[in-house]
Amino acid sequence: MIDRSESAEPADVLLVEPSEERARHTRDGFSDTGATTTMHVVSDGDEALAFLEGRDDHADAPAPCLVVLRLGLPAPGPDGLAVLERMAEQTTLARIPVVATVDEPEDDVVTDAYNRGANAVLPTPSEPAALAETMARVAEFWIATARLPNRIDRL
């Protein structure tokens, strides 16, 4: 396996997750890889779009190299599928890989997510240790191995 974790610029990841507990376990998983990752966490679709578009309180937000997006976001505001759709409409956002997370991977939700631009749809375990392990695997591939936009690899 190619490991770019030590030879690449730090990775900025946007996590869109309404649950503080899940966000904590996701951070734990990403930190277990040894790669330098800055996790930016927002809790709803409106804030995710403001971050991605550099608006409002996020005017100085870095362009993330990866988005981990919970599809089941709370109302009001856009859900995860609407965030995917909006990202796909904007050239600079459409190239950012998105890992969409779901509790129950129902066929229609998975299909909709891929049709709207998700690069992966990931069922997330409810058990905290399993969630952290799953996110460590996500980070291992997307951060330590894959070449990503908005990140300068020196290899």
UniProtKB/TrEMBL annotation:
InterPro entries: CheY-like_superfamily, Sig_transdc_resp-reg_receiver, TCS_response_regulator. It comes from the Archaea. GO terms for biological process: phosphorelay signal transduction system. Residues 12-139 form the Response regulatory domain. This is Response regulator receiver protein.
